[in-house]
Specification:
Elements: H1 5-39, E1 41-44, E2 47-50, E3 77-79, E4 84-86, E5 95-102, E6 109-114, E7 117-122, E8 125-129, E9 134-137, E10 142-144
Parallel strand pairs: 2-5
Antiparallel strand pairs: 1-2, 3-10, 4-9, 5-8, 5-10, 6-7, 6-9
């Protein structure tokens, strides 16, 4: 059995197509791993997971100064004071673990209405949000990281 020119061309094209598909999948996974390592956030099935143990730097014990680490990042979500936000896959806030950060240096404690109940939170506290929950920042705007 001898292969004709067209059969050889089809085999070469098939091998090239398979190579491109494998490279596409490899690069997609590699880029996702880099993004996860860079931001400390992983997203699977519409649920957000924080990978970093301490997403915000701690105070320096010697000087008591905090490094400038509260810049608004690309993945951060701002809860504006007085606006109601609903957690859900189709909304801005997805279900998952978040760190609550104050937007004002002088205020270390703030209030958030969560499902109709107002609770006091401290700067850099963790919270787990489920689908359908509603959030409202009461006294100041808050950053979800």
């Amino acid at each position: 059995m001898q292969l004709g020119v067209y059969e050889i061309v089809y085999i070469v094209l098939g091998v090239c197509a398979l190579f491109y598909v494998i490279m596409f999948v490899f690069l997609k996974r590699h880029n996702k791993k880099e993004t996860i390592e860079k931001t400390g956030i992983d997203e699977k099935g519409g649920v957000r997971y924080t990978i970093a143990d301490e997403p915000v730097l701690k105070e320096d014990e010697v000087t008591g100064e905090v490094e400038a680490n509260l810049t608004f990042d690309k993945k951060d979500i701002m809860l504006r004071r007085g606006f109601k936000y609903i957690v859900g896959e189709n909304n801005k806030i997805k279900a998952g673990k978040y760190t609550l950060l104050t937007t004002e240096e002088a205020i270390n404690e703030f209030n958030i209405r969560r499902n109709g109940y107002v609770r006091s939170y401290e700067h850099n506290s963790n919270v787990i949000l489920d689908d359908g929950e509603d959030l409202t920042a009461i006294n100041i705007s808050v950053i979800l990281r």
